[in-house]
DNA sequence: CCGTATTTGTTCGTATGTATT
DNA sequence: CAATACATACGAACAAATACG
């Protein structure tokens, strides 16, 4: 077999039909074209068509009636009792993930549900593949941390498939603009960063660098808070003080950009960072450059993670209610599972963060 | 079709083979004649033979191997194809858990398996409940971090149920003595602690405190390594220098015990800790007591976690191959899933740890 | 009720691809 | 490398169930 996709013809047809069903273009009870018609349309032999169909019959997507035709089966029957909830995260890291999943697990375990864990590594295609996989596994609901949520989601059709199959889902941390009217448990990222930058400005700092993640909505919103706080204090917004990084260059870009600024002699009073990881890296960079925190430069983190207390100079940061967020998401989802009309009642919780003042900021 | 039984040829062959298996004339592992051979013998086309075989493959009576042949499957219990693997951990914490699960996930995702995650909070009854739950959910295998593995397991019957149901499982980090001949991927805890204490002794320390967890087998084994290293250096074993703690008092007991020793004026040269978390706590205690590390007292950790590098004085510790361990466990489990006779071939991997020398130990 | 067209079900033959031994 | 075994694919014929005029 030497097809472009190096995939068997019958498998391609199988996937095609399966997709039509998942995407709702084929609804339960709908008749598919006859074997002969398909064979002619797709210029393959009837035998090959039959092979594809027989697999889908075996998997429960189709059923055949002798002399009548082949039809799409209603697969929603056993869905409601699996007592499994899918959790799709972007990263399984030491950072805030463990506490969030702890919160989710505590609520789900109490209600005798299990977590099916998937992580995308912030890869949009994996997100699509995993939603499809979980559709197959009959989960009763999903908790999803969106992948690259600042970008337009190309996986919209998969979310629509979830809607059609009556599988509720809750977004955490971020959401897609196209799916704004879905349930979501998020932090008020704008307000959080506003608090941090406002605090820096009140301490007398004027040249405040902002470091933000460009590819998720949290980064975009935190940047908004940064700009708003500057405006309040009549500090002109200078794009030269704003550093944007992406998932792919997260380990190099922020440090490199700050280093360039400082060695170019640009005045820097303070640096407000996208999160504690960045702040920790910036702290180490400044130390290596011979600058002391907070005497020479103040820095703020975000998330109130273990890093903010483990850092030699404890970081002033913005509280992220990690476990609580997981708990709320799980509770909201279970309510949606019980509610037949959940699509009309999306739940949006925007958690107000608070500033945690520690040792990494000083008066100017 | 006008056969005597008015039955399709392929159905007859199917029933015939199925009967041979049920009557025990075809035993698990036996090879059936090749498709061509059967076609010739029974004077039917190879296609018809294939149809019969494909049904039996689907029903789980046979399996085919490309290029080799078609074999009889061990079918005393219906081996499902849920493509789910249960993972039972003791804690979902920031500590080493995320990296271990990352390793597990990377291998399972590659093989299109999903993780069903359960955490016991080190509660033996929850362990039992979750094994039972996962039996219900048709997982194909389990990766289990044993709960309180130093104690005699009262959940033996649940593990026996797994055996009876042909659901393979792999222990990680520890194991139960009663289930010693099951697959297990563990660290050589004794050797690891031996290296650490040996290193301390070679630096000239004699009064070496050891802090160990009493309720898991890792603690017991690490204690053995501690004792062996002392013996090698002719340092008498003094129970007064050994601190045992349990899951429940892990946050208070070690610090309290060390504090008591020091305020009682007992000479302490070095402290070798059960893990980096304990070492980190002890570091903070010593700092608060005005002792400096490593000048006044040397300390060692265990696990090479983020804590050992985030600690203001970077900890000398023992390397724990967190991701690798997860990967190995997942690979071994998948091999067992494919092996009908996995119970006779337990895989035991004991990973040799190595000492990571950083800044928390000094010559006496 | 009959006949015809359509649709799925069964069977055969043939050819070629690919993995294993 | 050759032989063997399973995998994919095409084409053809006929059987059996159904739909419809």
Give your account of this protein's structure.
The structure is a homodimer of 364-residue chains. With 364 residues, the first copy, chain A, is α/β, with parallel strands linked by helices. Chain A is built from twelve helices and 15 strands. Chain A has helices at 9-22, 35-41, 46-59, 97-110, 124-136, 156-164, 189-202, 217-232, 253-263, 276-288, 306-310, 322-338, and strands at 31-32, 62-65, 69-72, 84-89, 114-119, 141-144, 169-172, 184-187, 208-213, 242-245, 270-272, 298-300, 317-318, 348-351, 355-356. The first copy, chain A, has a six-stranded parallel β-sheet, sandwiched between helices. A four-stranded parallel β-sheet of chain A has the order 10-9-11-12, sandwiched between helices. In chain A, α8 links the parallel β9 and β10. In chain A, α1 (9-22) crosses α3 (46-59), α2 (35-41) packs across α3 (46-59) and α4 runs parallel beside α12. In chain A, 46% of the residues are buried. At the A-B interface, α4, β5 and α11 of A face α4, β5 and α11 of B. β5 (114-119) of chain A pairs antiparallel with β5 of chain B. Chain A binds a DNA duplex (21 and 21 nucleotides) through residues 1-2, 8-10, 34-36, 44-48, 50-51, 64-70.
Q: How are the secondary structure elements laid out?
A:
2 copies of one chain form a homodimer.
Chain A: H1 9-22, E1 31-32, H2 35-41, H3 46-59, E2 62-65, E3 69-72, E4 84-89, H4 97-110, E5 114-119, H5 124-136, E6 141-144, H6 156-164, E7 169-172, E8 184-187, H7 189-202, E9 208-213, H8 217-232, E10 242-245, H9 253-263, E11 270-272, H10 276-288, E12 298-300, H11 306-310, E13 317-318, H12 322-338, E14 348-351, E15 355-356
Helix pairs in contact in A: 1-3, 2-3, 4-12, 7-8, 9-10
Chain A binds a DNA duplex (21 and 21 nucleotides) through helix 3.
